[in-house]
Amino acid sequence: MELLFLGTSSMVPTKERNHSAILLTYGAENILLDCGEGTQRQLKMAGVASPKITKILISHWHGDHVLGLPGLLQTISASEYSKILEIYGPRGTKKHFEYIKKAFFFEEKFEVKVREIEEDGIFFENEDFCIEAKLLEHTVPCLGYRFSEKAKRKIKVDAAKKLGIPQGPLLGKLQEGKSVTWKGKKIMPEQVTYEKEGKSVAFILDTVMCESCVGLAKDADILVCEATYSEELEHKAEEYKHLTAKSAAMIANRANVKQLVITHFSPRYKNPEKLAEEARNYFDKTLCAKDFMRIRV
Amino acid sequence: MELLFLGTSSMVPTKERNHSAILLTYGAENILLDCGEGTQRQLKMAGVASPKITKILISHWHGDHVLGLPGLLQTISASEYSKILEIYGPRGTKKHFEYIKKAFFFEEKFEVKVREIEEDGIFFENEDFCIEAKLLEHTVPCLGYRFSEKAKRKIKVDAAKKLGIPQGPLLGKLQEGKSVTWKGKKIMPEQVTYEKEGKSVAFILDTVMCESCVGLAKDADILVCEATYSEELEHKAEEYKHLTAKSAAMIANRANVKQLVITHFSPRYKNPEKLAEEARNYFDKTLCAKDFMRIRV
Known about the structure:
The structure is a homodimer. Chain A has about 300 residues and is of the alpha/beta class. Chain A has helices at about 40-45, 65, 70-75, 95-105, 155-165, 170-175, 190, 210-215, 235-240, 245-255, 275-280, and strands at about 1-5, 20-25, 30-35, 55, 85-90, 110-115, 120-125, 130-135, 145-150, 150-155, 180, 185, 195, 200-205, 220-225, 260-265, 285-290, 295. The first copy, chain A, is built from eleven helices and 18 strands. Chain A has two domains: about 1-150 and about 195-295, 4-Layer Sandwich (Metallo-beta-lactamase, Chain A); about 155-195, no CATH class. In chain A, the strands form four sheets. A seven-stranded mixed β-sheet of chain A has the order 6-5-4-3-2-1-18. Chain A has a seven-stranded mixed β-sheet with strand order 7-8-9-14-15-16-17. A two-stranded antiparallel ribbon of chain A has the order 10-13. Helix content of chain A is about 25%, strand content about 30%.
């Protein structure tokens, strides 16, 4: 799994930071979290072809999180896109999407499935992972997301060799958690396999501190969290329903995450590293996102 | 007068070229011609504050020419904008604009005046300049624009000195084209003033070759013209209703302009200088636009 930060500014872009967008790559899945203006060009700069995107998760419909959507769809439409693009978002997403299509001349040459998430919980699940959403507290309906890889049974290669079990269907069955008989002996799956826990990443973009933040991030490997302001501008954070770097760290702390990555910085901060320093007073393992930064999970 | 190219790509941006947008600065006027996705950030990169913009002229409502509009308006809205922003565009502009406002949560804290241009001709005029539009031939309603500075009577400083006329109201009257009496002699305006012709710039963005192109550009100091394709892709140019570099040069030639600047290049051209070379076979004074290029007129 890899995260690629495509934009780390809040409402207004700066020379160094574009609007919000994060790409999560997991196998053949390329999931875009938010799509601020200019995202398709940021993807190009990062060497990622726009038609690789499989799902788009919209946190909310403030411009700085979605204004890149029509352009991205147009570029995908001009490619030979044969997948069904899935777009998920909060209440109102379908209506917003219809207006976008009316606002510009736009040829939709591929299938788009738009789904509004009405309730907290898992809204997508397959063999390998699930995605969960929780309603956060912002000035408009806004969702936080969590991507969770499922646990997988892996082969203990040395143990399998020691027992002389060859690669093939027997090992396959053991990996599925079933016992097999090998050279007259019953082999239990625990003898040659182990369960590898799945990784998880939570995304909290635009909210005030609330219990849903902590719930969504609980024990995550990575929490990507907005930190629009520094501590001394807490009154602004409250007014505009945003988090300070301190609040982001407090969420990370309470949720017991392994790593916090802060993003969505107010353009007033030339160097948002000072926000990461602030956060580290409350949660040591804090990283400051930068445009085009990649993180292996 | 100055032109600043903010984006020189056509439908899809490249690493080097953003979507269409050109800023024309004339005194306190900052007129934006088209506003492709990412224009507000391009302005920032060029050191121009978005709230300086006074007018926006939309050629047509294809995404690559307008998708930067909502973000730009949002950024202007967050400033202390006390002017009335004027937006001009072809038939349908008001409807598109209303849908944009519905598509995103958007606070309009300043006054915007949207006007659809229904007929060819001058649609804006003041003491210093006028702006004219002509309907071109594209797949959707699309306007070409021409900005024309008015002729101005200037003082022949040496002649005024020779006659001993002091700086002040007398010279002012002569500059207005009126005769005055100085030391008992009648002084005619022609004796101490001359008429300086105004400069003009025509903008032809997205069209096939048509007579309106030539009419709009007639004798202009600068013609900014799309040249999406090279000559060998003329069939594509016809299919998508665009110009080749050769056609742009032919328009410049027939319209007798002083300088041609080509822009709006297909992303297939890594170095669009080859398109300028092609154009120079038909019109010598051809320049190839680049993002952030400035031209003094």
